[in-house]
Amino acid sequence: MRYLAYLSVSGHLHSDSFFFYSQTALTTGSIPGFIDVVMNLNSPALLEDNLIWQTKSAGKQIIFYGDDTWVRLFPKHFMEHDGTTYFFVSDYTEVDNNVTRHLDGTLKRDDWDILILHYLGLDHIGHISGPHSSLIGPKLMEMDDIIKKIHASLISKESEGTLPNLLVLCGDHGMSETGSHGGSSEPEINTPLVLISPTFRRKCDFTHNKHFCKSQVDLTPTLALGLGLPISKNSVGDLIPAVFEELSLREQLRLLQINGHQVSRLLQDSNPTFHKEDGYEQFHVAEKSHGSWMKLYLDGNRSEVLSNMGKKVLKQYLEALKANIWGSDWTLSELDVLLLIGTVGHTLSLGSSSFIEEEHQTWYFLLNTLCLAIFQDVCRKYFREQRGEEEVEGPLLPSSTEKGPSFSPALELGMSLGSEKWLALATPLLTLTCCRLLRSLNQTRVQWAHLPDFGHQLNSGDHKAFLSLLVAVSLVLIFLLVQHHCSLVSKIALALGLLGVYSYRAAVGNVLFPWQHRSRYPSPSKGTVEAQFIYVFVLGILFTGLKDLLRLQVMSSAVESRRLKSRGLWEVYSGMVLLVALLFRAHNLPTLACCLLIQTIMAQFIWKKLHYDAAQTTIMHYWFGQAFFYFQGNSNNIGTVDISVGFVGLESYVEAPAVFLTTLSTYAGPLLWACHLLCFLSSQRDRAVMGLGHGSYCFALLRSIPAVFYIVLVTLLRYHLFIWSVFSPKLLYEAMHTLITTAVCLFFTFMDQERSTRP
After folding, report:
1. PANTHER family recorded for this chain (predicted)?
2. What per-residue string of b and e applies to 118-136 under the rule 16 or more CB within 10 Å gives b?
3. Treating both helix axes as pointing N-terminal to C-terminal, what angle do 488-507 and 558-583 enclose, rounded to 10 degrees?
4. How many whole angstroms separate alpha carbon 216 and alpha carbon 192?
5. What is the pTM of this model?
């Protein structure tokens, strides 16, 4: 082969076909682990045996343009390169133009053997607005033109009498329905792999044939053998037979023998009992049959019997490779540890991994149970008042017995006591209804994450008008639920900020303005100006709230101090709500609206009226926060982290705000409920003086218990097969959640100390 043009398109090549690739897996043939996610943030030079190193050692010249991760992995391997940063996902134009601008000149040159192009535009569009974005169509057409240009250039070179060329087209990963990747859903791990060369005599269509579904690591030995290079020693891939089917039977058997020998050596180095493996024995049987076939072949035998015998040997090699790669235990320590723990430990490990993957079901169950218990308490209270039966049993959830002026939501809202009763009775039922609807909005179950949910339907182009209406209604509801706690200036800023949120979503193509002309492929802006506009209002509201809190230091009146503290905290909370509204995807804004609605009705008709103490109120807030973490579409899988929010309103990649915004968006549910707890406890006159302290202690305890549990669990199961795929991601989530909770509890403590110093 004279030229190898390798085109990698991050994201997806077709709207419903995706594949997960990593540069390390593609070049080494080894399976990436969880640690590669961390290393990918600051990729060091790859020292492991790999295809790029083998190519350079063979004296071949390589040119690379695209994702600069390649440049960091292979710093001295390219004769020419131009890298572009993959972090700034808001850019989906210049990041590709920087690659394409080199094409015309490079394709005319004859001083290179391998050209690697890694385009990032599709990936960035997916992170911004998902796979159904109106930007996907034009970007795919752009990629089509680039592929056509490369193919035409290679054909013209072949007409000049050069060796045959190979064009490889693939994606380095797939894309979920929300635009993320790194998980195990079908859209994230499957994508087409296209190889084009004049050496192929026929066209093979494997799109709908699962029998021909190949792993990403299979590309490494295939390209190595096609280029006449050694296979990377740590590769666990087997070559793709269809690529070499035009070769003679003798050549095919030789290539399979090389591949099998490499995999057997790898098995031998990693497994002390390798000689007992079925694949190892099958390979030696195939080698003996191959030797017998070669002896007959060299003797000049060309009969049909020899041909059938060769095909049988080829089949033996393929079966041996399959058994060696997929039938062997490459992780020895898992079996050893499980044998030491015994049957109980084995059951524990399986149960714990399943619990982590389906943890959201636990929180949904607890939330439903809580709502039913509250409903029973409300029924007992109002029916007891109606009958005058003072000796009836107390509430299911024991309430505070503190004395003080009673609070009546009915009087505050201008309603009759009868209306208050029915609203209180309806509150748990309305909460259950909202939670059930939110469960259908985002699919978080690992086993069924690939199945479509209501969020997927909303994000499809056919429902953009309905999504636009839903977003508008959600933003109006958010304003109505939050504004009554704010000053006039903050109310105006909040209204303009929420209007800016809609403008931002329209700018990135998620929703429509009523007057906007709807074309098939609109060209919306990147929304940077709109997002920066909203940041100004967020900072303004936060500044107003913090100003009130700082004025507490010079206030002498306890009444005025209490009023300023309550208003200041609520305005800080309102600023956070506006920021979260900006960061949430368009289809998730109803989740934020439901969160605020539940907080409002629970505060007005449940927590105040039934006089739950600080500990009980804290537990309820914590449970709601955990449930809303999953209602957002989060899971304990790293692949559900939406990194695109880290670049909202930024014109270039800046690490600190990117990390802050991503963290805030991911933990928005727990954080909003924790902040609402602080605001609620601070605003209650009839609460005990130590209410904030009790709430802080209870909140810290609730967060510490699972954190300690998972630390112990991961330590005990550190050799488990799922340690990198299940347990380590969960531990990372717990660590970040604990860090956020620590900051919240410190703020609780500060406000409690400030309160205790007042007369």
Report:
1. GPI ETHANOLAMINE PHOSPHATE TRANSFERASE 2 (PTHR23072:SF0), PHOSPHATIDYLINOSITOL GLYCAN-RELATED (PTHR23072)
2. bbbbbbbbbbbbbbbbbbb
3. 10
4. 11
5. 0.76
